[in-house]
Amino acid sequence: MELLFYVIPCLMITFLLVGIATALRRSRQIGRAWDGGVTAQARCLRSYTSTSGGGDSSASTTLHHVYEFIARDGRVIRFDEANGPSTVIEGDLVTVHYLPDRPEQATAHAPAHGKLAAGTGCVLVFYGVGLAFCVIFILVVHFMFSTVDSLLP
Fold first, then answer.
1. What is Dmax (Cα atoms) for the chain?
2. 116 CB-near residues (< 8 Å, 6+ apart)
C-alpha cells in the first residue's frame, strides 16, 4: 500500500517533466522561426474552434486556423495552429515564419518575444509548482512512514 504513495507522484512528476520539455521545445521553435527564419505568404484555408471541458466544469474554446503556403524549396506546406487572431478568416493572406529546414513547424503568430517569454514562464511556473508539490508529498510521506515504522514494535 505504501508503494502507491510513491508511484503515483513519480508518474505525475514524469508527466510534468514531459510538459516542461514540450513547452520549452515549442517556445524555442517559435523563437528561432521569428529570429532566424524566413517568411512566406500563406492563405488561411479554414478556421474552427475546439471545445474542452463542459459538463460539471467550465468549458473553454480554442480558435484554430489551417494555413497553407509554398516553402522556398517548392513544397506545399499545410499546418494547423491554435490560438490565432479572431480577425483572420478563410481566404485571408498572412505572413508565416519558418525555418528553411523545418517548414512544417511554421507559425503565423506575429513576432512578440515578450509575450512568448511571459507565456512560457507562466507554463513553467505552473508545472514547477506541481513538481514541487509532488516532491514535497513524497518527502512527507516518507517521513511519516519511517516515523510510524519506528514507533511500531
1. 77
2. 27, 30, 31
Could you give the 3-state DSSP secondary structure of residue 48?
strand
CA–CA separation, 75 and 83 (whole Å): 25
24, 16 Cβ separation under 8 angstroms: no
Q: Are 127 and 20 in contact (CB under 8 A)?
A: yes
Total residue length of the chain: 153
Give the predicted TM-score (pTM) of the model.
0.81
DSSP string, 55-66: TTS--EEEEEEE
- Helix, strand, coil percent content, the chain, rounded in steps of 5: 45, 30, 25
Residue-wise pLDDT for 119-129, tens only, equals 999 999 999 99
Residue 89 cell numbers, joined: 478568416
**How far from the centroid of its chain's Cα atoms is residue 87's Cα?**
23
Long-range CB contacts (within 8 A, 24+) of 79-85: 79/104, 79/105, 79/106, 81/107, 81/108, 81/109, 82/50, 83/109, 84/47, 84/108, 84/109
First to last CA, the chain: 19
Q: What parts of the chain have a pLDDT lower than 70?
A: none
